[in-house]
């Protein structure tokens, strides 16, 4: 059983301890519902600060975690261990390990003993790097984060193979396919998606449709369960889509949040269902025709897959 723990808005002034308290409450609900693992959203520990511009480096760094777990996130790991529950967590990572400061939009998988078993750094960073004063809010991921350098990894976890993507990655078929090629059976995806797209307001009415469209097709075409987890609701003036959901390898949406706030949903994710698709319709070894994809690329001069 997998749980998605959607989170409502986090105020700019809400500190980590209060957020972790909310997360522990969600974790306990997930456990009570029979979950083995609970998934939190992208950048779950703070408000989604790329919506604001600042040139103050210290102010930027304050949104990031230097250690995971650190003193303020340790209670989450302790509670998971106490409950015997694994979790998926999105957070903003400040890496100073190589004597150089690097910032990533990161997610991790933690097993039931509190050990980090997998780490991913977001690859598809949306938005822009420059301040857009005319815009009602910013989307400054290209300013505050580096492109992830770990690739799309997959790990043995919870009786199968688990992978991670983060928010905008879900709109790109390559993200799922690279995981599908590694046999990923569960794909965790946290997101912070505004209802309004300042650069293309004509897309706004389709926000929820596109959210489901890309995750449902990613699940089906790669025979995987997809667990999509939102940070939702009106956060510091930015309205964000909710609709956290669990999608089966059939492409069917089997559980969906109904609120804009903190909410837990669960689904019994039968990994044999994915195997059934992976061995038939989407048997990659038998049916993919990679040599032809390359021929098309050579003929047209398109970017190689
Ligand atoms: N966090 C994140 O990646 N958000 C983007 C907003 C882009 S607007 C289309 C997303 O793809 O949801």
Structural class call reads alpha/beta
User: So what's the overall shape?
Assistant: globular
Major sheet strand order: 5-4-3-2-1-14
Query: Helical residue percent?
Result: 25-40%
Tally of DSSP β-strands: 14
Q: Which ions, cofactors or small ligands are bound in this entry? A: 4-methylsulfanyl-2-ureido-butyric acid
User: What is the distance, rounded to the nearest whole angstrom, between the alpha carbons of the first and last residues?
Assistant: 34 Å
The whole-number mean of residue pLDDT values reads 96
Number of separate domains: 1
Radius of gyration: 19 Å
**Quaternary organization:** single chain
Q: Which CATH-level-2 architecture?
A: 4-Layer Sandwich
Query: Low-confidence runs (pLDDT<50, min 5 residues)?
Result: none
Number of helical segments? Answer: 9
What's the CATH H-level superfamily name?
Carbon-nitrogen hydrolase
Largest sheet, strands/sense/barrel: 6 strands, mixed
Architecture blueprint of SSEs:
Elements: E1 2-6, H1 16-32, E2 37-39, H2 57-61, H3 74-83, E3 86-95, E4 102-110, E5 116-121, H4 141-144, E6 154-157, E7 160-166, H5 173-180, E8 186-191, H6 207-221, E9 225-230, E10 233-235, E11 238-240, E12 245-247, E13 253-256, E14 263-267, H7 271-278, H8 284-287, H9 290-300
Parallel strand pairs: 1-2, 2-3, 7-8, 8-9
Antiparallel strand pairs: 1-14, 3-4, 4-5, 6-7, 9-12, 10-11, 12-13
Helix pairs in contact: 1-3, 5-6
The structure holds 4-methylsulfanyl-2-ureido-butyric acid.
4-methylsulfanyl-2-ureido-butyric acid (CDT) is lined by residues 42, 126, 167-168, 171, 191-193, 197.
